[in-house]
Amino acid sequence: MSALRTVTRTASRKSTLYNAIRAYSTKESTLKERFAELLPEKQAQVKELKAKYGKTVIGEVLLEQAYGGMRGIKGLVWEGSVLDPLEGIRFRGRTIPDIQKELPKAEGGEQPLPEALFWLLLTGEVPTAAQTKAFSEELAARSKLPKHVEEIIDRSPATLHPMAQFSIAVTALESESQFAKAYAAGVNKKEYWKYTYEDSIELLAKLPVIAARIYRNVFKDGKVASVDTSLDYSANFANMLGYGSNPEFLELMRLYLSIHSDHEGGNVSAHTTHLVGSALSSPFLSLAAGLNGLAGPLHGRANQEVLEWLKAMQSELKGDISKENIEKYLWNTLNSGRVVPGYGHAVLRKTDPRYTAQREFALKHMPDYDLFKLVSNIYEVAPKVLTEHGKTKNPWPNVDSHSGVLLQYYGFTEESFYTVLFGVSRAFGVLPQLIIDRGLGMPIERPKSFSTEKYKQLVESINKA
Ligand code: CMX
């Protein structure tokens, strides 16, 4: 057990440092302490629910759902957020306007601090300003990358997509996993969540440094500003990317990182992170898997696709962005067998509130920007065209329809990087659930599959009966 003692000693040295930071900033609980206080109650609640209602039927499954991406089948547990088809996302019961109102903000700012959202998603509680500040400081203090991760990023060719570089670098952080070391040393399963927590915070702290290093290597001079422990997470990230001098951009980053974080558990990136984590892979390996899913064009990469599509439309329409021209362009996209990027959703059946939040930001900060006007005009035409086209169940815009335009306005024009920003944000949603999963002792995930032949036998026998 000496390896476990070494892991525990390292963890406790780190904890001493963070406790010192906390003692300096606040006398209130740290996030880890608060989660530890709340966990027994949650464990008891789940135990009671399972004992009382474990055999209650909570849904039915149609054959078409098995062939339809399992849409709507209930079978996942996700504590941080629930998505209503009409109302949109609720973070621990709160809408986007609610979190904009309730969560601590930067001085003079209007947008929530994503660090505070992480706290909310993990505990269900809104942290105080002092707790948020102490957590920001902890993240900044843990941000330094190991040398081999820096080298892996620096050796990646600029032609390798930023999302592939991102996932490789996150995978390479596995060397830092306290969970993997503790598991190898034989830690008791009751302690899993503590090491998962440490890995998750370590990972969250390092993501902006990884992302900024990729951005600066691929698109700029390869130099990355150092982390400043007095700044919040988003300000540090914006600074490292090279946009830290514009206070509006900092606010955009806070909004961006907050609204892209969590969208319940069934989306590809959240589900993948959770699934891989269920095999007790570390948070580094689990998130890397989720990022690979986010990189798909029907999921997170849609923000890049939207920009490429908008730019192609802009150049083809030569400035005449009348609704008639946009309508023709939309039909061309659909008739060529492609999807309209940024529109449609697997669960939502109205305009994504994340779209609306970004539209409000644009109306305030860039009402006359030409790309924003184009996005607004498309919003007036696309739902009608998609409805006439008759395929999609949801003709309304999603989050990716708007995000890129805001970044373009501030000169952040490299759209192939946009999904990396989404990935940094998604960690704020999926890592809390990994910690909760380990705290609740969730089992390895293993749903049942059948071959088409076996399904045929099944439905024939059901229909005969
Ligand atoms: N343009 C054209 N056709 C669309 C469409 C769109 N924006 N959205 C859905 N459809 C089509 C589907 O491709 C499907 O066609 P087939 O029957 O030929 O296979 C049909 O409409 C039914 O699809 P659906 O049930 O409405 O949508 P799904 O739940 O299967 O898929 C999504 C959801 C998001 C993948 C889909 O709407 C889409 O491809 N949108 C464009 C890409 C996009 O914006 N993705 C980002 C989503 C948000 C995110 O995860 O980041």
Automatic annotation (TrEMBL):
UniProt entry keywords in alphabetical sequence: Acyltransferase, Transferase
UniProt record, GO biological process: carbohydrate metabolic process; citrate metabolic process; tricarboxylic acid cycle
PROSITE patterns assigned to the protein according to its UniProt record, in alphabetical order: CITRATE_SYNTHASE (PS00480)
GO cellular component term, pick one: mitochondrial matrix
Record-linked PANTHER family: CITRATE SYNTHASE (PTHR11739), CITRATE SYNTHASE, MITOCHONDRIAL (PTHR11739:SF8)
Lineage: superkingdom: Eukaryota
GO MF, any single term: acyltransferase activity, acyl groups converted into alkyl on transfer
Family matches, as SUPFAM superfamilies: Citrate synthase
Pfam annotation, one family: Citrate_synt
Protein name as annotated: Citrate synthase
Active site: H299, H345, D400
Family: Belongs to the citrate synthase family.
